[in-house]
Amino acid sequence: MSSPTTPAAAGWYPDGMGGQRYWDGARWTEHHAPAPAPVVVVRQPSNGFAVAALVLGIVGFVLMGIPLFIGWFLGGIPDILAVILGIVGIVKARELGNRGLALAIVGLCLGGVSLLSVFLGAGSVW
């Protein structure tokens, strides 16, 4: 015993020849339409160097405050990388129409300030 099927809802459906045909809910009509244009998604290039500089700048800035020279080891490497990647991120931002420029500058500044704080005793005594 077969169960009755519910008819398809009214609307435009592919006609098998590259176009569309209208189904009114009971039968096919004579209305035809061209197939809809494909949706093209254009992905904007990102500036990964700028993001990495910002993240490393924040990490280094936070870790540099750990006393007894531990901050130098845990915060120093991310700070150095933040400065390097911040410079690379600024150069890359110029190529990408300033995309990520602010992130690269903030990462560079955080890494630089944190490295300069070593001369004030950060990571050693306080």
UniProtKB/TrEMBL annotation:
Stored InterPro entries: DUF2510 (IPR018929)
Transmembrane parts of this sequence: 48-66, 72-91, 103-125
DUF2510 domain location: 10-39
Alphabetic keyword roster: Membrane, Transmembrane, Transmembrane helix
UniProt keyword annotation of Protein biosynthesis present: no
The protein's name: DUF2510 domain-containing protein
Source organism (scientific name): Pseudolysinimonas kribbensis
